[in-house]
Design goal:
By secondary structure, the protein is an alpha/beta fold. The protein folds into two domains: 89-317, 3-Layer(aba) Sandwich (D-Maltodextrin-Binding Protein, domain 2), CATH 3.40.190.10; 323-439. 52% of the residues lie in helices and 16% in strands. Strands 1, 2, 3, 4, 5, 6, 7, 8, 9 and 10 form a ten-stranded mixed β-sheet that branches. Strand 1, helix 2 (42-56) and strand 2 form a beta-alpha-beta unit. The chain is rod-shaped, with a radius of gyration of 45 Å. Keywords: Membrane, Transmembrane, Transmembrane helix. InterPro entries: TRAP_TAXI. The chain crosses the membrane at residues 326-345. This is TAXI family TRAP transporter solute-binding subunit.
């Protein structure tokens, strides 16, 4: 009985330990590594703010920034397994092993010139110099893409790399450049500062925004580019800047997730991203630009991660739906374990009962042997064995392996054995006395 109790207790402790480990694994927050850079960029600030809010609200997901030098390195970090998520610009580098989660913001290709330079269209850039704001090869490639579409040899347009929008006004006034190209959100510092610098270089006259009327045709065959409308008055001023809505080419900054990342994690991340968007926007206004990608895959759209699709289409599985198989397996395992414990207990009880019955059988055998014993030495041996059986019975009774009925059975059997031994001992004594008198 004690052995069965110990086995049952051990099994219960094992089940409790397994349950605690399982609960710990399920309840522990999942940390997702996000490759983004450089750290001074708006994208890095946006991801950092999102990570801080997730940690502050004790959400099940946490974000850990993997700092990079830019979008291209972020894409490599994800492909190489150093990150689970990455912020990339669609025309710079798209990881091979990733799918889109959300569009963080859409950037416009803004080409602007002072009205005094006589530049009104892309074709007017021939034999002119364009200042590329930010030393990014991707921005230069965007200009070359536009020139190729309008059949302008790239050699016919000179370019000058500028470190930032603060160099635009001086470069225009000195004649080093005739127009400036900047890529970014229309509410971002880079584009606003560039438009402001061109306006100042034109002595306050409204700048000319070069439209890309065929932006849709350029973007249609490419998943890396998009179209963008710079609405009338986007940059303020009187008269408004621009005076009419200008169509141009656009690129997107996208949060992508590794294809191997579980759908449940991506669904939860997407939910939290849109839930926290208004809160994050208080500190990082760029968060207001977060939007869902197009779900209908086509030549100009991104492939969206199934986990994000589940959120956008309101098909996110509940906790029970996700882990129902594990629940059933757990119940099956508990059932098997319970059956095993019952079998062990049954075997232990059967073994104990067999042991008890064998002792009782031996007591009855002692009674029979005592009645036919021919020597006192045999009776002495049977009496010693009877004492041993009594000791075993008392031990079993003390440990609970022998119940009250068993004790009564042993008491009766042992009394019969002692009585038989005593009777036989007296009988052998009388027989010896008769033999002694006969001998005399």
């Amino acid at each position: 009985m004690r052995r069965t109790t110990l086995l049952s207790l051990a099994a219960l402790l094992l089940m409790l330990g397994a349950s605690l480990v399982a609960w710990r694994l399920i309840s522990a927050p999942t940390v997702l590594r996000v490759a983004v850079g450089p750290l001074a960029s708006e994208d890095a600030r946006l991801v950092a703010a999102a990570g801080q809010y997730l940690a502050r609200e004790h959400e099940a997901l946490r974000l850990k920034i993997v700092a990079t030098e830019g979008e291209a390195e972020s894409a490599r970090a994800l492909d190489e397994g150093r990150a689970d998520l990455a912020v990339v610009r669609t025309d710079v580098a798209m990881p091979e092993k990733a799918q889109a989660v959300a569009i963080l913001h859409r950037d416009a290709v803004v080409i602007v010139a002072p009205p005094t330079r006589g530049i009104a269209t892309i074709s007017d850039l021939r034999d002119r110099t364009v200042g590329i704001v930010r030393r990014m090869p991707a921005n230069l490639r965007l200009l070359e893409l536009l020139l190729a579409h309008y059949e302008l040899p790239k050699e016919s347009v000179r370019t000058m790399m500028l470190d930032g929008p603060e160099q635009v006004e001086a470069a225009l006034r000195s004649g080093q450049i005739d127009a400036a190209l900047a890529v970014g959100t229309v509410t971002g510092r880079t584009v606003i500062a560039t438009v402001t610098a061109v306006t100042a270089a034109g002595d306050g006259a409204g700048p000319v925004f070069l439209a890309v009327g065929e932006a849709e045709a350029i973007a249609q065959p490419s998943p890396h580019h998009d179209t963008f409308d710079i609405v009338r008055g986007a940059f303020g001023g009187t008269p408004p800047r621009p005076t009419d809505t200008v169509k141009t080419l656009g690129v997107n900054h996208v949060l992508v997730a590794a294809t191997s990342l579980p759908d449940a994690d991506v669904s939860e991340l997407t939910r939290l991203l849109f839930t926290l968007r208004p809160v994050i926007a208080r500190d990082i206004p760029l968060a207001n630009r977060i939007e869902a990608p197009e779900l209908e895959n086509g030549p100009s759209t991104l492939t969206v991660h199934p986990g994000a699709v589940a959120y956008y289409e309101d098909e996110v599985l509940s906790f029970f739906d996700r882990y129902s198989d594990w629940f059933y397996l757990g119940l099956f395992a508990v059932s098997i374990l319970g059956s095993g414990l019952a079998w062990i207990a049954s075997q232990a009880f059967t073994h104990q009962r067999a042991s008890t019955l064998s002792l009782l059988d031996r007591v009855l055998e002692i009674v029979r042997q005592a009645r036919t014993a021919d020597r006192l030495s045999e009776l002495d041996e049977l009496e010693r064995e009877t004492d041993d059986i009594l000791g075993v019975a008392l031990t079993h009774a003390g440990t609970g392996r022998l119940d009250q009925h068993g004790v009564s059975a042993f008491t009766l059997g042992l009394d019969q054995a002692r009585h038989a031994i005593a009777e036989r001992r007296r009988a052998l004594g009388r027989s010896r006395q008769r033999l002694g008198r006969a001998a005399e």
